[in-house]
Specification:
The structure is a homodimer of 249-residue chains. Chain A is an alpha+beta fold and 249 residues long. Chain A has five helices and ten strands. Helix content of chain A is 22%, strand content 29%. In chain A, β8 and β9 form a beta hairpin.
Chain lengths: 249, 249
């Protein structure tokens, strides 16, 4: 069985997120498994680098699967793209060693949260941005972002229920980029907790609106509960931009 | 009555084009007239710089209307945007002299035809591009474009029926721009005949595919009928990018 690594792009608008689970219908993972099982005529499992929420998009999700395939890799690449619906694309397909697992070997991820900060409607980007008509103070947002950087327990910035797993993550980099009517929040970390990017984004948006101070970030880390942090920004503004691996993969 | 000039953007996907006519429902013009008549409590007519076909988009359509309005221009601007559906945006609104008419005073227009030239699906741009998986030879397309430049009778590049009106237009500029998976055809002229940009684009695409030579453009001008030219490229790839006026407007 050959192990294949996929680089995927999708518009998450009409999907219930990446992960199939229980009775959840219409997920990206499920769609891919259907297509790959159909092509190989054998039940095929797809391993994603991580879940994306219902309505969240991906510019560069990574997943892998094992398949017995006689033809060329490029032939398989074309076959998969022909079978995919128009809101999911396979950008590239490559053979990888058997040990490669897209989630276990991921070293870091970048998520981008897109805010449309204008009274002028976002005609062409409307499905991919969160609209906030209140002018945001990006200088304050940058100050707040600086408090988030580094290794912290991000439990209060997540919707994780009680867990034995560690909620400590290392946030390597945050950028607050303003370009015309749009503000992008770009987060790179070694991993993200459930809803973490959306709560980080909601919190930074509240700072930008002047509803809370940049310094209040410190209090959130010290607080006892998730209520200390900002709102969970809507899924449609979020995109998984990139998943990073060691050079050998 | 004050004359107002609007700069508009729209995703034409779900509209029957710009122009209301006879029983045609659901046009952009009609939608705007409904909203403006509602705001002013008086039948209000909207004059566009020109029609766009069903399914064609606009990045910068211009239109004007006359209205008795007591409040500020910015107040009116916000009111219109709030009433508009999310696939139409008013980018700017300004007072103009009574004599201004968005069609009669337009001196030139730029249209952009977007071709997605890849076997990788265009996930996020899929509603705004024409997909052609055959690799296009942009050098030949540029050579062909050069034959189109200047003043010509473009009758054979249009779906105009017999008409007494002139079918001579001046094509000032054509660009063939390749950027990653996309090729854009950018046309600027003093005016365009019905379906002219889509037929020019279809013809250039056929040149890019090697189905016809760059030199065949000369034969199309000399031919007796529209059949000499290429196919009418689909409306969804087309956008009205800009309408030009004298400085005084």
């Amino acid at each position: 069985m050959q192990n294949y690594k996929m680089l995927l792009q999708y518009d998450g608008s009409r999907y219930n997120g990446w992960q199939k689970q229980g009775n959840t219908k219409n997920t990206i993972q499920q769609k891919l498994e259907e297509i790959l099982s159909q092509i190989s005529q054998k039940e095929t499992e797809v391993f994603g680098s991580g879940r994306t929420d219902a309505g969240t998009h991906a510019w560069g999700q990574v997943a892998n699967f094992h398949m017995q395939w006689q033809g060329s890799t490029n032939g398989l690449f074309l076959k998969i793209n022909e079978a995919l619906p128009e809101d999911i694309a396979l950008l590239s397909l490559q053979k990888v060693p058997p040990r490669f697992h897209s989630r276990l070997q991921a070293t870091a991820k970048t998520y981008v949260y897109r805010i449309w900060n204008s009274v002028i409607p976002a005609v062409f980007e409307r499905k991919y941005v969160f609209v906030d008509k209140t002018p945001l103070d990006t200088e304050q947002m940058k100050r707040a972002a600086a408090y988030l950087l580094g290794e912290h327990d991000f439990k209060n910035f997540s919707s994780v229920k009680k867990t034995k797993k560690s909620t400590i993550r290392f946030l390597y980099h945050i950028e607050v980029v303003k370009k015309e009517n749009e503000i992008q929040l770009i987060f790179t970390a070694n991993g993200f907790l459930y809803n973490m990017v959306r709560i980080l984004s909601g919190t930074l948006i509240e700072v930008g609106e002047g509803k809370r101070s940049a310094e209040s970030i410190k209090e959130i880390f010290a607080a006892k509960s998730r209520e200390a942090a900002g709102f969970t920004a809507p899924a449609k503004g979020l995109a998984l931009a990139e998943v990073f691996y060691d050079k050998r993969w």
